[in-house]
Write a structure and sequence with these properties.
The chain starts with a helix and ends in an 8-residue tail after the last helix. The chain is mostly helical. The protein contains 3 helices and no strands. The chain has one domain. Helix 1 runs antiparallel to helix 2. The longest helix is centred in the first third of the chain and has 63 residues.
Amino acid sequence: MPAARAAQEAAAERVGLAAAEHDAALHTVAVEAATLAAGELTEALNRALTVEAKILSLREALSAQANGLAAGEKISAALGQAKAGAGVPRNSDAGRRLLDLLAHDSAATL
């Protein structure tokens, strides 16, 4: 019986090591997916900031005119409303869903 016990312990150790390797690989792929998505986020933020820069430029140009101050203030208000109205609900399932997909498809993305 000691030989069977030793074989069982060796097998359990191999399973544990395989599970750790699996988890490490899954984590690596998940970080790669998040890094790719973060690049998309940067692009989206830059597009939004480009639009904001144009609006701010117009506000500054109007504010520089003697009679453009009121229009500049209205642009500031519109910009504030746009920022206040932006937002999406948190998607708490996306991460779990990606981890489930990555278990079968290493090319899955967020």
